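Troubleshooting log. The previous structure file for this entry was overwritten by mistake, so regenerating from the original sequence record. Sequence copied from the archived sheet and checked twice against the printout by T.R.
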Amino acid sequence: MTKRKSPVKLSPRRIIDGKQYPGIHGKVVDWADHAFEEGILYIRVRFADRTELCWRIVSSILIEEVDLSDWKTGNFRPLKVFVQNESNGE
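Regenerated output below.
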């Protein structure tokens, strides 16, 4: 098996520069975990000074539009719009 090299070249500093969270630099991590509850993914990082950084990640499906149309003649002719801008979370 051979290793493939990525065509994208990033410097080590560029890799480390990801999203920054002011106030957590230098803190000592006590523990980290994740949980999936009621459709939400929680990622928690607890620090030794009893503070916590938590990401709540949610995914949803959005129905932009549902319509009935007539295309028998070769022309698109809308007959009725049933749903417009409705999400499953509301």
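The two ends are 49 Å apart (CA to CA). Archived copy saved in two places this time.
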